[in-house]
Amino acid sequence: MSLSLKESEALFGRMLDGDMGDAEIKATLIEMAERDETSEEIAGAIRAMRARMVRVSAPEGAIDVCGTGGDGAHSLNVSTAVAIVVAACEVPVAKHGNRAASSKAGGADTLEALGLNLDRAAETAEQTLADLGIAFLFAQKYHPALGRLAPIRREIGRRTIFNLCGPACNPAGVTRQLIGVARPDFMPVYAGALELLVYDDAMLVAGDEPLDELSISGPSSFIRLGQPPERIAPEDAGLPRHPPEALKGGDAHYNADALRRLLSGTLYTEQDRAYRDATLFNAAAALIVAGHSKNWRDGVEEAGEAIDKGLAKALLECWVRF
């Protein structure tokens, strides 16, 4: 039986506050995942998490680019690259992320391999957001209430509602967001959840593969809040298609090397070109959500200039040294 928004918020509040036993938590999460969570349940869980997270201040207009994960693609870190490129376009990015759960390298792993000290990044998040226009908000540092649930989630060994909540629980309280959803068919439900929350603008995206980002290999679906679902392909943004295997990633050091080449404009291989185009495509979506670009092609052009002029590379170097 599904829960109302208020019932869900109360239930997950009890769960996060340690007022439920492990067996009941496990049974509840599995039951919801097996029947698919409703918009009201997701929004209620998000509200409960937001009420208990550690918050940081962010400049006006700050956005986040983040996905639910779990697409099984083991690809290069597109959203991490997008965050750096978009910030280099002078849009503040409060990047919420974590270590790998279902891939070989999550955003935190790759940034660490690039030289970012995650503890230092957490201590200076508000300052780097204000001075550089970017911060990495390492999820485990801002959501202490989730700590006691980690063993239960590992024991369950599959996606739960908390994977869906994560992107919408940004500690900076951003109201503009690009969110990748690993299940295209689930996007209307997720959009319904976000519409029960406070957002200035948000776009949900899903590649058909499925991917929790816009696909550079074929068509994708996207939904802007308050609007009907739409379809888009790379060529609609002036970009070529690339085979899915071209974006296959590796461990954190492998992915970090690919990101360095991307920001340096060094395009030696098909993978380098595919990574650049996937980044430009998703960066365009983020720039549209931020109100910074009018359309897909303008967004691609602006993101490309941030790379080609060395702005994104310089931003990363300043961030690592901060």
From TrEMBL:
GO terms for molecular function: anthranilate phosphoribosyltransferase activity; magnesium ion binding. It catalyses: N-(5-phospho-beta-D-ribosyl)anthranilate + diphosphate = 5-phospho-alpha-D-ribose 1-diphosphate + anthranilate. Pathway: Amino-acid biosynthesis; L-tryptophan biosynthesis; L-tryptophan from chorismate: step 2/5. Residues 2-52 form the Glycosyl transferase family 3 N-terminal domain. Pfam families: Glycos_trans_3N, Glycos_transf_3. Keywords: Amino-acid biosynthesis, Aromatic amino acid biosynthesis, Glycosyltransferase, Magnesium, Metal-binding, Transferase, Tryptophan biosynthesis. Anthranilate 2 binds at R153. Binds 2 magnesium ions per monomer. Catalyzes the transfer of the phosphoribosyl group of 5-phosphorylribose-1-pyrophosphate (PRPP) to anthranilate to yield N-(5'-phosphoribosyl)-anthranilate (PRA). This is Anthranilate phosphoribosyltransferase. It comes from Sphingorhabdus pulchriflava. The gene is trpD.
